[in-house]
Write a structure and sequence with these properties.
By secondary structure, this protein is mostly helical. The chain folds into two domains: about 80 residues, no CATH class; about 220 residues, Orthogonal Bundle (MetI-like fold). It is about 75% helix and about 0% strand. It has 14 helices and no strands. Helix 1 packs antiparallel against helix 14, helix 2 crosses helix 3 and helix 6 packs across helix 8.
Amino acid sequence: MRKYIIKRILISVVILFFVSFIIYTLMRCLPTSYIENMARQKSMQPGSKSFEEWMAQLARDYGMNTGIVAGFFTWLKNAVQLNFGQSWFYTVDVVQKFNETIWISFTMGAIAFFFEIIIAIPLGILAATKQYSKTDYIISVIALAGISLPTFFLTSLLKLIFSVKLGWFDLFGLVGRNYLQLSAWGQFLDKANHLILPILTLIIISIGSLMRYTRTNMLEVLNADYIRTARAKGLSERKVIYHHAFRNTLIPLVTIIGGSLPGLFSGALFTETVFAIDGIGYTSYQAMVAGDIPFSMFYMAFLAVLTLLGNLIADVLYAVVDPRVRIA
């Protein structure tokens, strides 16, 4: 196991190198750039230098006067030293801006992920064990609705019902207008109140696919020969389902759950935008649109590391949930 993990880590380092290079190349090849926009704005000021002169000066100032390969290795050298530079668009340190916005997105994603697991998996199992019944049809309709509903439509619908019609929650924002006058506990409750609708949105749009995935894999396992043998031996239905069938359903579920690790930190662009929450999803989107290479490189490399880590964790967990799996 130790050799396997070390081997996977070394392979992941190589993959991360090429992924980072591809991301940097794409950022440098965008149709427009932060430097170009800055040069255009400065050249339009009265008595200013020409656009070409500003481009040359800003390219030198921001280190963009070198080729893509040389620029990438300069970024990589600084990144290895944990120096990710300053965000061009937000004009603060990249790590500082990331730290300011990541935790609200992580809180929303982690809570939504927890409820996704405890809702989707049991309902998927229930739908599989009651195939073609009314329960199965109801759960399937709920799952398909969660998969099909666009995020912007669902958020607008929830805001219309719970904010406009019922008045239970504010329309947008992370805190209320009286937030500073509240006690520490009151401030916590105020933030929690503002996060209910965004988290509810994330839960609804995420449970559908996991529910259907669980149902499909559970049905496949329930039709296996060893399940019929277990039933023929007189085992209770509960033991057949939750001891024999569910354990073999865990392998594909571990793949899904392991792949969900980057999603906890990637943020939810549409949800954060509609509810006016400055999470990492909306922040990174703004940085990418503006051509902010330092922040975008750090954010995308961070997600790449999480993706590789999630795949490694999933592979290791295979041996935990299924004794038949042997890693050589």
